[in-house]
């Protein structure tokens, strides 16, 4: 964590300002171990460079702590990449390029990556960003952020990145402090709470800020809806949220408070196999899209 992050971080209990305390390890102006505290009594630790607000991982998916017990972070990344459909992988790379091209063109000062997970977008950013923004990665999992930090340092050690383990529905960030929010499928994986995630992005964005969100959509017809419902039953899920069909994707961002919403198709295909996600459906058409919301 870098010290100037405290200028935009707020106490989740009283909205007050944090102060730094007990710095026990520091490297190149980055605080690796220490503590922040608020006058109201709240305090949180900085461990391995990650500011930890004691959030808990999702129970239904993305339990990274358990995954890392079986495989180290490099092995897990390799396993997922090897088992991802080639066309989907190609479109995901095009989506990452689309997002980073936007950053390089507009050069926002503070970039917030929502639900950054294994840092797939952040790694591409570290390798391809051509200016020096302040970057904040957020995720429920302290464990995944700890390894994200190692990955990014190996790619671009000069990039200024802060890591915050927190609830992305209750970001410990002040209102209107972020220039650009980005989400590489992070918000769309917030099953049942996607709208709340979009509203939280709206809260922290400056008036001139923008959210670049992403999702995979399916064809909107009864056959597809029936197949999704069958898949939901097998996964013991009630819903996959409001980011599967084009009109719902548009509406959820409007309902989240954004006046100007544009959907951009990155590419499309027919899904050959999908071992890790419910969407896209195997043997069905899908499109990877970016959502620009202002």
Number of helices: 8
CATH architecture of the largest domain: 3-Layer(aba) Sandwich
- The share of residues in extended strands comes to 25-35%
Task: Report the average pLDDT across residues.
Answer: 92
CATH fold call of the largest domain: Rossmann fold
Give an account of the 3D structure:
- The chain has 294 residues and is of the alpha/beta class.
- The chain folds into two domains: 1-47, no CATH class; 49-82 and 94-214 and 244-267 and 288-293, 3-Layer(aba) Sandwich (Rossmann fold).
- It contains eight helices and eleven strands.
- The protein has helices at 64-70, 73-82, 86-106, 120-128, 142-155, 194-204, 222-234, 246-255; strands at residues 19-27, 30-37, 43-47, 50-52, 110-113, 134-139, 160-165, 178-182, 205-218, 261-270, 285-293.
- Strands 1-2-3-4-7-6-5-8-9-11-10 form an eleven-stranded mixed beta sheet.
- A hairpin with a 5-residue loop joins strand 2 (30-37) and strand 3.
- Helix 4 (120-128) packs parallel to helix 5.
- The model has no long low-confidence stretch (mean pLDDT 92).
